[in-house]
Amino acid sequence: MNQTEKPQQKKDVIIVGTGVAGSLIAKLLTDHVFDADAKKMIHRSETDDSKTYKELSILMYEAGLEAGIELDSATSMVTYNDYIRKFYIEEAKVPNSPYPNLKQAPSPNVLDIEPIVPPFPDKKGYLVQFGPMPFASDAIRVGGGTTLHWLGTTPRMLPNDFRLKEQYGRAMDWPIDYETLKPYYEMAEFEIGVSGNVAAQEYPIKESMEEYYGKNYVFPMEEIPQSYMDHQIINGLAGTSVQLNFEEYPIMLVPSPQGRNSTPNIAYGTSKIVKAEASESGYTLTLKNIESEEYKALGAVWNPYMGERCEGNASCVPICPVQAKYNALKTLKKALYKVNKNQNLQRNHNIQVQAQSVVYKLSVDVADQEKISKVHIRRYISREKTEFVEEVIDTNETIVILAANAFENPKILLNSKYTVFENGQNVEKTVANRSDQVGRNLMDHMVMLTWGLFPDPVYSYRGPGSTTNISSFRDGNFRSEFSAWISPLDNWGWSWPASSPGSDLSEFLNDGLFGEELKDALTHRLSRQVLFHFEIEQLPNPDNRVTINDQYLDVLGIPRPVINYGLTEYEMRAMEQAKLASDQMFARLGIEDFTKYNATDNNTFVYNNVRYSYNGAGHIVGTHRMGDNPDDSVTNSYCKSWDHPNLYIVGAGNMTTLGTSNPTLTLSAFTIRSVESILKDLENILK
Length: 687
Description:
Elements: E1 3-4, E2 13-16, H1 20-30, E3 32-35, E4 40-43, E5 58-61, H2 73-89, E6 128-132, H3 164-168, H4 178-192, H5 209-213, H6 228-237, E7 241-244, E8 247-250, E9 253-255, E10 270-279, E11 282-294, H7 328-336, E12 337-339, E13 345-347, E14 351-354, E15 357-365, E16 371-380, E17 388-394, E18 399-402, H8 408-414, E19 417-422, E20 425-430, E21 446-453, E22 468-470, E23 485-490, H9 495-498, H10 502-510, H11 515-526, E24 529-536, E25 545-547, E26 562-565, H12 569-589, E27 592-593, E28 604-607, E29 610-613, E30 615-616, E31 647-649, H13 663-686
Parallel strand pairs: 1-17, 2-5, 2-18, 5-14, 6-26, 18-31
Antiparallel strand pairs: 3-4, 7-8, 9-22, 10-11, 12-13, 15-16, 16-17, 19-20, 21-24, 21-27, 21-30, 22-23, 23-24, 25-26, 28-29
GO molecular function, one term: oxidoreductase activity, acting on CH-OH group of donors
Protein name: Glucose-methanol-choline oxidoreductase C-terminal domain-containing protein
Domain Glucose-methanol-choline oxidoreductase C-terminal: 540-670
């Protein structure tokens, strides 16, 4: 039975979601207080014991369970160990397998993907998929969000990724360029704790690495060692090139920057803080050294001495057993706990995280400059029951920040209708959707896999999922004709395309092998398995979109995301070219090609009489893109809604285009930048 609770005490900021975007904003805001005398926001390090400051009052909503965001050491360890135990017993080790599958806050799961038979949608999972192709990626609604099962790869976007329209006549340019975002990339790399070797990076760009990264710049931690397999492939492809579209492309094999702990880089220097500097026009965030504190790898949220260094557990997706890999809970804990005068962690009671709380719509006070006036929540009572408490929170003097994933943010917005009186009649509108771009331009990297057997053992199945990538095709003139891509080398054998090593064992047992014969057959095959990824950029397409429909509701009566998704010839041709590149590299390396795409695959198509299949990369972006014009974008470059003065919409959904890099680092960078605008708005509210 539904109930109604009284509104909670007024909050300065409400953040929906505890993933990387929401946690970054919470951490950076709680690092600052309001100086009532100076009438400005200042960093905690600048406070004076003789003065009183206004602490920001922040409320965060998390759709997942309470156990996911209780970040005291004991509870955190118990919860995370429960995730690990679930991972061990699940037959299918897919990205969501360790985490709670909640009927009140369901998540898209790759195991639910099925071919679509028009005109009927695939309704098996949380997503309602009308196609014509299934959207192939998942996400998870738990404390910390999808960073719990990301791979952890952290390349930056390239300069031309921000100006596809200008350079290649494709898609739409970002409202910011690479140079604008560069200092925020540095802040994101500090917060995530990126391991890598700047000197070893090589990209197909006109800028030198010194221009691209900055003079003497290094990552916080040393490079994660490249695998033995990587070195064998590097040696075999050294000095070679691939011919595509009548052009030669030299093969560049680059050690991948990664969000996982290695050894702190001495050249990086001390630890740092991200500090707001006030000016007449607003605030600018800068990365400042803490001279008295050396840089240290940040370990597990329950024990800083556990997970200080990657142990090569080979299960980064779906879970790092020791939390050597970054996840957003590490940042969230920095918001919830602050170092007091005695250098001890103390709970920050000015920020509250309310779990089991599904935000499903916003209301607008039309009489007050179209401010967001209410947030509507359904808080479910327990994991087992579907009863919920209806809560309505007043937000007239509050900054509201939607920081959920690129399915959930547009779902909330599309469910938020309001009426205005225009030209003598009532007109129904949708929150933040003047441009009609909310939910549109859904994108992902299409992952085409190629696999084969190396002539000699390369000893797969060790270490992080990928430690090297081929960067040769991340940019080039070909982008006017077909997509760019990045090619990670996979350290985990044929586990993704062929369910190895279990499938190999089954095959050999069916062949009657046993004992030494079985062991020799497994050793001979598994030690030589090689897998290449081709993560292919998808362009924004307004027809690829998230919508809602009252016919499709979850158990709380909230609309499920309805997905329309397909590919264009631009992307199909890129897959054709990527397979040609793979064929040439396999031939040079002497790899016996076992790649096979079947008509029964969920995501498959025929292009130029050849079949191709692809998977999702988990890089769910678009759906509320940023821009410099309210007519064709949802937010400005600071992720602030064009339509509502107290609404920010942050996360991967803001990405104007996708580029070829994993999106977490980039969304972290522009989310950090958005805090400059949020601080200015808070100053205006508080002074």
